[in-house]
Design goal:
Elements (H helix, E strand, L loop, with lengths): L2 H12 L5 E6 L4 H14 L3 E5 L20 E4 L3 H10 L3 E5 L6 E2 L9 E6 L7 H6 L2 E4 L11 H18 L10 H12 L1 H10 L16
Parallel strand pairs: 1-2, 1-6, 2-3, 4-6, 4-7, 5-7
């Protein structure tokens, strides 16, 4: 690994937004699943969540362009489980959903801890999910169609969140705790060695300022 790559990895990891996430509730098309993960990486989201669809699918394909290596995708059994978890972390829970209570996505304060729920491609979120979340948001449409592709809508909303957070200086200061930062930095820098350490239940070696470490 070159020193330049190590500097880049440290910079990207330092900008990860630990209090922002996406929940995919029944997103079943692999290209949409992967495109959302790719957007999460671009925005600086550390972890996404998903409730798998019946029958499953192969979530990591070319659409992700390797971003699955840098965004943790955590599986849950049901939407109530993940909502309870995230609300316990102090997050406001939003859902992209057309309803009488829905507001323009730009009216939300995304500098607050935020989780965005994206529903199934054809039907959107369920009635249960709609009742569980705090706010419904929409992307205003001026054409004949009533909705965007789920991954496109997710990207539009997340880039508004990024805009607000950049203006607030939230990417200038690391929010990840030291233990997770150094562990993740090692996994990103030396994935094969990290996997070996995990198999052998050994602590990761300490990285020096150039991203190198002493041999075992």
């Amino acid at each position: 690994m070159t020193p330049e790559r190590f500097v880049k990895l440290k910079k990207i990891l330092s900008q990860r937004q630990m209090d922002m996430t996406v929940v995919m509730d029944g997103v079943h098309k692999p290209h949409n699943f992967n495109a959302i993960l790719r957007t999460c990486d671009a925005i600086g989201i550390y972890q996404a969540h998903f409730i798998p669809v019946a029958g499953g699918y192969k979530p990591f394909a070319n659409t992700a362009k390797g971003s699955q290596k840098y965004v943790v995708a955590k599986e849950h059994r049901c939407i109530s489980e993940v909502v309870s978890l995230l609300r316990g972390q102090g997050m406001q829970i939003l859902a992209a959903h057309l309803s009488d209570a829905a507001v323009d996505y730009r009216q939300i304060d995304y500098t607050q801890p935020t989780a965005l729920v994206m529903g199934e491609e054809l039907k959107g979120i369920s009635n249960q999910t709609a009742d569980l979340v705090d706010h419904h948001v929409i992307v205003p449409m001026k054409g004949m169609v009533e909705s965007l592709n789920v991954s496109v809508a997710c990207a539009v909303i997340l880039y508004e969140a990024q805009r607000q957070r950049l203006a607030a200086g939230m990417y200038e200061q690391r929010s990840m705790d030291d233990e997770l930062y150094w562990a993740t930095l090692f996994e990103w820098s030396w994935p094969k060695v990290a996997h070996l350490c995990q198999q052998q239940k050994r602590n990761y070696p300490v990285l020096n300022e150039d991203g190198e470490f002493n041999k075992f």
